[in-house]
Amino acid sequence: MTLPPYSRPLTAEDAAHLLRRTSFGATDAQIRALVGRDARTVARELLSFDGAEAPGNPFDPAQAATPAAGLQLIRARWLFEMLYGPHPLRERLTLLWSNHFVVGTDKVKNVPALTEYLSLLRRHAATPSFSAFALDVARTPAMLRYLDNDQNRNGKPNENFSRELLELFTTGIGSPTQQNYTEEDVKEGARALSGWTFIGGRGNQKYLEAPKFVFNPKQHDNGRKTYLGKTGNLTGEDVLALAAGHPATAVFVARKLHRAFVSDVPTEAAVKGSAETFARTGGNIRAVLEELLSSEVFYASRAAVIRGPVEFIAAALRSFGSPKMEAKQLLNLVQTAGRMGQLLLQPDTVKGWDGGREWINDTTLLGRMQLAAALSLGANAPKLDTPPTPLALLGTERAATAAALNGLSAKQRTYLMLISPEFQLA
Amino acid sequence: MSLHRRDFLKYSALAVAATSGMPGFLARAATQATGQKTLVVIQLTGGNDGLNTLIPYSNGAYYAARPTIAIPKKDVLTLGPDLGMHPSLKPLMGLWDSGQLAWMENIGYPNPNRSHFASMAIWHTADPTQAQAEGWIGRIAEQIGDPFCASNIGSSTPQALRAAEFSLPSIDAVDNFQVKLPAGLEGAFGAMLDAPRDGEADYLVRATRQMMSNTQKVQANVGKYKAGASYPEGKFATQLKDAARLIASGTGQRILYVSLGGFDTHAGQRGEQDELLATLASGLAAFQTDLERQGVAERVVVMGFSEFGRRVAENDSAGTDHGQGSVMFALGKGVKGGIHGDSPDLEDLSLGDIKYKQDFRGVYAGALSGWLGLNARDILGGDFKGPQWLA
C-alpha cells in the first residue's frame, strides 16, 4: 500500500501548511509563490537539497576558547543555518535525526566529533539508505563515546549502544506481547560491536582535536553469535544491517517521520503506508518523504503538530523573512530554546524529546510568551519592512484569532499571533 | 521592552472564565488542594546503583563482584552490622541519627524491564504492564479534582504527572513563574483565547488558561518566604529551595517532584556517582534544615527512587550495566527511620541482578494512604503492601 497522492493544485493554505511543516515557516510571498502548483513536484523540489550553507555564518566552533564555548558555537552555528540557510527542510530533517540518533553534549564535548556528527546527519537528511545512515552514525566518535561502545571489548562487553540501537534507533521495543528483540539480542549485539572505538580527541584538553573511528581487531569478539534470528561470526556491520533491515524498523522509522510531518498522534494506517514504502525501497527515506509530503493524509492534517521550541523560534524568524540579527541575539535564542525545553544536542536522555504535548507546560508556555514579546514588541525586536500576515503566522487568512487583532498596531498584531494556539501548531 | 509587571488580581476575571471550558476534573472545585501534608518525590534518573548507595559492606560477594568500584569498607558510613551508606551521603547522617531517614531494600516490580524508558514509565504509571498513559500523580489530581495539587519543579513534566487530559504544572523557577502581558493587550488576549477551537488548538487554549491561574496562585504567596538555610550551588539544590519556598508559603500542592539526572554509569562510575550522591545529600540536608526553620518540617516527607538498580558485577569500563532491584529512601520527621527489608542476597541473582523482594507500589501505597490520606487502591489499581516506612 502506498499513500494516496494529493492531486489538486495547491491553494494558499495548502502551501502555507507545506512550508510550516517542511521549512519551519515562510513569508507571505514565499507561500503564494507555490499556489497552483502540483504537490508532487513541489515535494521533490523541497527534497532536492545539496550541501550549500548559509553565507556569512558568524559562528565558528573551531575558534572556541573552551569546551563549553565550543558547544555554544556549534548550537549557534546550527541555529543560524536553520534561520538563514538555503535548505530549511534539510535542517528540519537534521533536527529530526538528531532527536533519533541521539548524542548528548553532557558526555560528548569534543568539537570536531560533534561537527562531524551534524554534517553526517545533514548529508543523510533524506538518505536513500537508512541502513547506510545507521552504520555511518554508529561509527562516529560522537556516538561511540555517547553510548560507550568505545569501551566495548572482547570478553568485556558494554551493552549500552547495542541496547539503544534496537530500542531507539531501529526496531523499537515492540509491544509487551510482541517484543521485537530479546535481552539475548542485546548481549549478542554487543559482542559483535566489540572493538569499534576511536582514537584521538579524548579528555577535556583535546576538545579541538578530531577523533577518528578505528576497528580494533584484538578487542573484537570473533565467536559465533545469534542476533535477531541470524547466526554466524557476526560483525558490527552485520548487526547494523540486521537491525536496520528488520521489518519493525520500517514501522518505527515511518512513525517518527509521521510524528514530525503529519501529526503528533499519527494514525497507524498511514504509518503502515509509509512503512511499506520504506520496506519496498530498501529504506529509502527520500522516497518515503516524497510520497508523504505529497499525500492526501499530509494535506488533510492541519494544525496537528505542536511546534517544539527550536521550531517555534525558526518559524517566527522565517515567517518574518529571516531578518538580520546580532550574533549575541542569536546566542541568546539558543539559550532561550533551552529554557523552553530544547537545548540543541542536549535532550535529557538518549530517547530524545518526546515532542507533542510534552512541549507544553506552564513554564514553557511562559517562555513562549516572553520570547514572542521580545521578537515583536521589544526594543531589540527585528526590524521588519513588511509585517507578517495572518497567512504567514497562522497558516490561514480566515483564522478565528484574526477578529481579536482588529484595531491593534502591526507589532501588537504580530505579538498576539505569535502567542496564539495557531502559531504554536504546524 | 515596555512591559509592565501587572497585578495578578487584574487577571482574576480571565482566570475564572478559564474554568468554564475545562474538562471534567479540572473544573471541579479545588477544595482539597490545601491539605496539610506534602510529599516531595525525588527521581534519580538513569538507574542509580543501589549497591553502591546502601552498601552490603560485610558481604565478601559484594567486593568480589566489584574489584574496582566497590566502596572500601573503611569509607562506608556504617548504619548497622551489614549495611552502610556511601561516603558522599555524609550530609544525611544527622537525619539518620535522629531517626528521620529510612532506606527500603530490594525494591522493584515483576518482570523487570532494563530499558530506561520502559522502566521509568512503569514507575511513573505504577503499572508494570505499561498499559496506562496517565501517571500515578496525574491520577491523584483526578481523584481529588485539582490540577494544582502537584507540581514538577523543572522544565519538562515527567509522565508521573500526566493526567488524562492535562499535564500538571511544571515550575522551572518560582521567580519567573508569572505572566507579564504588555499594557493594553489584556482585552485582545482574552478575545484571542475565546475564539472557538478544537483539537490541539483547544488543548493549547486550556493549557494557557490553566497556566495563568497557576502563576497567579504561586505569585500571590511566595513573597512570604525567607530562606532558612543556605543551599549548595547547583540546579538540584535550587529546585529543592523552590520546593521549600512553595511549601512554606502555602501554595497548596500536595506533591512536589524534583529530578536529578546522570545516574547511567556504564563507565567510570565511581567519579560520576560519588558526585551525584554528594549533590543529592547536600541538597536534601539543606532542604530539611530549611523546612525545620520554617516550622513546616512536620508536614513534609521526601520519597526517592530510581528506575532500576544496576548489575551486581561491575563491567570492564569500571561501570555497571542496567539491573533490576534497588533501594528507595525516605526522609523527614514523619518517617520511621531505619532499614526496611533485608540486606540484598548476592548469592541468589536474576540474570546477574538483585532480585526484588518488595514492590515499589507498596511504598507508593504508604505515601498515598499513610501520608496523603488518599485512596491508594483507586490510584494504584490494586492493594499493595509495602514496608511500614511512615512513623
TrEMBL record, chain A:
| Domain of life, per lineage | Bacteria
Please name one Pfam family that this protein belongs to: DUF1800
Name the record gives this protein: DUF1800 domain-containing protein
* Organism of origin: Deinococcus puniceus
Q: What is the lineage of its organism?
A: Bacteria, Thermotogati, Deinococcota, Deinococci, Deinococcales
Automatic annotation (TrEMBL), chain B:
Please name the Pfam families in this protein's record: DUF1501 (PF07394)
Question: Which source organism does the UniProt entry give?
Answer: Deinococcus puniceus
Q: What is the recorded name of this protein? A: Twin-arginine translocation pathway signal protein
**InterPro entries xrefs:** DUF1501 (IPR010869), TAT_signal (IPR006311)
**Alphabetical list of PANTHER family matching this protein:** BLL7424 PROTEIN, DUF1501 DOMAIN-CONTAINING PROTEIN
